[in-house]
Amino acid sequence: MTNIPETGRTPRVQTRLIVIQILVLSLLGTLGGRLWYLQIRNGAEYQKEASGNHVQQVVQPAVRGSILDARGVPLADNETRLVVSASRTDLLKQKDDGKAVLTKLAGVLGLDPEEVRQKVRLCDAKTPQPCWNGSPYQPIPITDEATPRQALQIRERAEDFPGITAEPEAVRRYAAPGKSNAAQVLGYLSPVTDDEIQQAKNTDSPFLRSDMVGRSGLERQYDKELRGKAGVTRYEVDNLGRVIGKAKSDAAEPGSNLVTSIDARVQRVAEYELDKAMKAARQQFDKITGENYKADSGAVVVMEAKTGRIVAMASAPTYDPNVWVGGISAKDYKALTGKDSDYPLLNRAIQGQSAPGSTFKVVSTAAAVEAGYDFNGNYPCTSSYSVGGQVFKNFEGENFGPISLGRALEVSCDTVFYGLADNEWKKDGGINPKKGQPKDYFFRAAHQFGLGKETGVDLPGEVTGRVPDRRWKQSYWEANKDAWCKTGKKNGSYVEKIAYENCLEGNKMREGDAINYSIGQGDTLVTPIQEAVIYGAISNGGTMYTPTIGKAIVSADGKHVTEIKPKPHGRLPVTQATRNMMDEALAGVATRGTAAWKFAGWPQDKIPLHAKTGTAEVYGKQTTSWLATYTKDYSVIMTIAQAGTGSGASGEAVRNIYSSLYGVQADGSIDNKKALLPTPLKSLPKIQADGSISAPKITGDPAKDQEKVAQQVNQQGDTSQGGNQTPAATTPTPTTGNRNTRRRRRGTRGRRTTA
Questions:
Q1: Which of 80, 415, 510, 751 gives a 20 to 30 Å CA spacing to 234?
Q2: Nearest to residue 416, comparing CAs of 561, 515, 564?
Q3: Are the C-beta atoms of residues 720 and 600 closer than 8 Å to each other?
Q4: Pairing mode, strands 67-68 and 257-260
Q5: Is residue 555 scored above 90 in pLDDT?
Q6: Among 3.30.470.20, 3.40.710.10, 3.40.50.10310, 3.50.50.60, what is the CATH number of 261-318+349-440+509-547+565-679+703-755?
Q7: Four-way CATH pick for 55-257: 3.30.470.20, 3.40.630.10, 3.90.1310.10, 3.40.50.720
Q8: What is each CA distance from 408 to 401, 404, 581, 683, in whole angstroms?
Q9: Which of 723, 741, 748 lies closest to 597, judged by CA?
């Protein structure tokens, strides 16, 4: 008799079989659960993705809309070029990552092999230009200037150039009509990045990998309207990539056209006159620093006074926006962004901020009247103003005796404004204000004039400037007191003394701060566009408009036109009576005041012109020239850094801009046939039935034509009218005049200015 079961299996074997059965059942259960998850729970999702493996997309880029001037002349449009591109994905499939192909391609195109290889590498924080900042999965343009011969070589020997294409494509063109550049206004394009694609994925304006997007200027501000919508055709393909059917097709929608208020002719004149004024300033000797003026940057704005529309906006130094088309070279990128470039990408009309000097006195005048001072009262214009041990000089020591606020604007008397601001500072309690809110009329007026905040111009990157009121001083002191206390010395250098005083009481409104602030010095900063709004408002009766460049958006077929209307955003804090008296005083600046020597012979009876000069001091640099002007139609603001006095450096250029606008000739007569824009253009250019926009041809160079008139003015000579005037000469006029010939004594608590 035996203990072995009839099955012939021992207990140990039976146990093993049971364990195996459990494992098999567990695996089957897991597999079944996974299949249920894939096929039932997420079946639809995976089916959609799987079907995508058999659908290929072919993208047809949309034609980007044009940017036009007010008369319909293209400032930025498109042209067909032969573009040679490289597929980074295909290159990386090759053993050497495509280095041999790119070297061979460089030989055909006549380019440096290393630069070609750099163009296909991806941009990151450590990779300098040239590099590719777009999607790595879209073709990367190597050049958009290929010749037909080069394109044929590449296409006929496709086996030698795997991953390389040569196709005709529409590329951006910045036309520069009549030699007008407008680089900072227009901006430029570059490829969309993966991050931008993700961010815009669920918006009403998603990106495709082939899209080019605006990076600055109008190209960025109106990118959505200009870009249009790319066409996408989807093809069904088998596993071998053969097309087996057409799934869906969405036609490309071209972008809309942007009509601007820029007049290309006036833009050219503004750019030319700014450049000429800067070159002339560099030929003049600065007796204060003992070297010629550097005149390293500047800006000019021409704005319609009654609408806020920008007719011209120039910034210097400038650049050619076409360098970005088809990818920028390392040399060009360094020229635009290197430490020695002076940063031409900056639009100094909206991003350049500096002390406004005496052009700020219109704000101080309004503040004084609001504080209760009579506009026509008598205020001492002494040669200097003393506060404790500090002496604040008036120009070169002029003494005009008791004068009104209007006359103080005409001759730009600093000491009048010193006294008014000092009186109000004392009334507010001095360095330790009385209980309750100080009146702060002078600081409040600046905010009411729109300073210290953006104007809202339709360009990206606008800066706010600065009103150094009590709140700003407190926050600035909290951020810098540790550094001031560490470096400050009571008996050290000028900078060390300033740091010492700031350490002790930098959060308080000191007497010197209030005095310097009244004439646009100290920590006050403004931009040219802010001044254009202010002086335009004085011209039109007191309404401040939001400055705009876009005038209308026109669909590609011309059937839909969306006008961009002028938008008022406030009024100057002055009564109509005060405004009228300021208006009369500013006319006097151009006829018998600090700007009269530059506007002698101007037809003031037919085209009344108003002005305010300003020469702002900047520690460690030469003086900044400001000239703010207006007529009943326009306000024109010009500023040049390190260039001398307001009228000396900018007067002739501003006069020439007005002469071009109104057709003023050398003898003071007006030739309407030569006037570029005697009245602002209200209508839009004519739109044809096919959607195209009519545009006149720009022939010649408007700036060169006006230069002939300017030369005649210089040859005739200007007649001096009143004190402190300097007659014009056939040679460039010295920018110092007689106001800035020696270093003036300044207190250690701030800076001062001349007119």
A1: 80
A2: 515
A3: yes
A4: parallel
A5: yes
A6: 3.40.710.10
A7: 3.90.1310.10
A8: 11, 6, 12, 41
A9: 723
The backbone torsions φ and ψ at residue 528, rounded to the nearest 5 degrees and listed phi first, read -60, -35
* pLDDT tens readout for residues 119-178: 888 888 788 777 888 777 778 889 988 999 999 999 989 899 999 999 888 889 999 999
Question: CB of 693 within 8 A of CB of 260?
Answer: no
Q: 3-class SS at 75?
A: strand
Q: Which two tokens stand for residue 418?
A: 């010193």
548 exposure class (CB count in 10 Å sphere: 0-12, 13-18, 19+): buried
Both structure tokens of 152: 């044929």
Contact 658, 710 (CB under 8 A): no
> DSSP 3-state assignment of 307?
coil
Q: What's at 129, amino acid-wise?
A: Q
Residue type, 529: I
Quote the distance between the C-alpha of residue 280 and its chain's center: 25
User: pTM for the full model?
Assistant: 0.83
Q: Which residues pair with 312 in a beta bridge?
A: 302
Query: Among residues 354, 571, 622, 597, which one has the least CA distance to residue 611?
Result: 597
List, in sequence order, the alpha helices (H) in 308-396.
330-337, 348-351, 361-370
280 by DSSP, 3-state: which? helix
310 to 261, 300, 631, 633: CA distances (angstroms) = 6, 11, 15, 12
- Euclidean distance between CA atoms 728 and 282, whole angstroms: 18
Q: What is the pLDDT of residues 44-71, one digit of tens each?
A: 666 655 555 566 666 677 899 999 999 9
Say how far apart CA 319 and CA 322 lie, in whole Å. 9
Q: Which residue has the tokens 């300003």?
A: 614
Coil, strand or helix at 384: strand
- Give residue 478's Cα distance to chain centre: 30
Q: Which secondary-structure segment (H or E) carries 545?
A: strand 543-546
DSSP state of 607: S
Residues across the chain: 755
3-state helix, strand, coil in the chain (%, to 5): 35, 20, 45
- Please answer whether residues 215 and 189 qualify as being in contact, where contact means their C-beta atoms are separated by less than 8 angstroms: yes
CA distance 303 to 537: 11
Task: Tell me whether residue 372 is exposed, middle or buried, using C-beta atoms within 10 angstroms of its C-beta: 0 to 12, 13 to 18, 19 or more.
Answer: exposed
Question: Cβ atoms within 10 A of the Cβ of 429, count?
Answer: 14
Q: Helices in 508-627 by DSSP H: which ranges? A: 511-517, 528-540, 576-591, 596-599
